[in-house]
Specification:
Length: about 280
């Protein structure tokens, strides 16, 4: 079969890291896959396979252009998979209707919570108008499955639970790799680790504030290391400076292999508003 994946991956985050293994699995099974980028990724080297990567959609600057481009791509495939919520999913559905192709989507976050913090309230109406008409909706948790059927009105027969997969043996092998020299000095003592894209919903600002408040009860050499990249990098840098935590809180940036850091951390802190 020929699959067309459509995603918004400006930075490498959880969505991209969950999608790429799925695509690779499909390709290893003999299927043809094209990944159409909604926007240009900042790290194109993560999507360097020309046979896989299609940037035509990202070159379109308005929704009408994206609909036309996506309809053209859809006509060459058997199935459309929208891996980014809201507008990319709506446009995939419109292209699917025009090209008469089935459209499947993913639910990785609670959309109403996301809209409240990041998008126009109009999306509250749009998600309830578009999502029930999908050919299928993959939910990554039981909570999201319940939300899809009870709140969004998606038919239970079209909703299915599939957790984000991982290769445990591969992860264990990656975790044994040496620490990158640039971050190794931060792991000589008790280290609290945060991992994720540096965006509002992850609330790394609250993680930094919590670490500051906990410092009197922590070993003097304790550190907080935040792994990831995103638009809030300069804001977090400024917060660290304002709190005078430059010697105990560090931004490690995007790590190609974050698992050695996770393995050597004393604990991993999750402070997201929602998953």
């Amino acid at each position: 079969m020929r699959f067309l994946f459509v995603g918004r991956f400006p930075e490498i985050g959880g969505s991209a890291l969950a999608t790429l293994p799925l695509i690779e699995s499909l390709r290893q099974s003999g299927h043809s896959v094209v990944l159409a980028h909604w926007v240009l990724p900042r790290r194109i080297d993560w999507f360097s396979d020309r046979e896989l990567c299609n940037l035509d959609l990202a070159q379109q600057n308005n929704l009408l252009g994206k609909i036309r481009c996506l309809t053209s791509l859809a006509s060459q495939c058997d199935v459309i998979v929208a891996v980014s919520e809201l507008t990319p999913t709506y446009v995939c559905q419109i292209a699917g209707w025009i090209a008469k192709k089935p459209v499947y989507a993913e639910l990785q976050v609670h959309l109403d919570s996301w809209i409240k913090d990041n998008s126009s309230p109009l999306h509250h109406w749009l998600i309830r108008s578009f999502y029930p008409h999908l050919s299928g909706l993959r939910c990554v948790s039981k909570e999201l499955l319940t939300y899809a059927t009870k709140d969004l009105g998606v038919d239970r027969q079209k909703s299915f639970l599939v957790h984000n997969g991982f290769d445990l043996q591969k992860l264990q092998k990656q975790a044994k790799a040496p620490l990158p020299p640039a971050v190794e000095p931060w792991f000589t003592s008790a280290t609290v680790l945060c991992v994720g894209r540096l965006c509002q919903q992850k609330r790394f600002d609250l993680a930094i504030l919590a670490f500051q408040q906990a410092q009197p009860k922590l070993p003097p050499e304790a550190r907080l290391v935040i792994v990831g990249e995103g638009p809030l990098y300069p804001n977090l840098q400024q917060l660290i400076a304002e709190l005078e935590l430059q010697n105990s809180v560090f931004l490690a940036g995007l790590q190609t292999n974050p698992f050695p850091l996770i393995a050597r951390g004393a604990l991993v802190l999750l402070r997201s508003d929602f998953k």
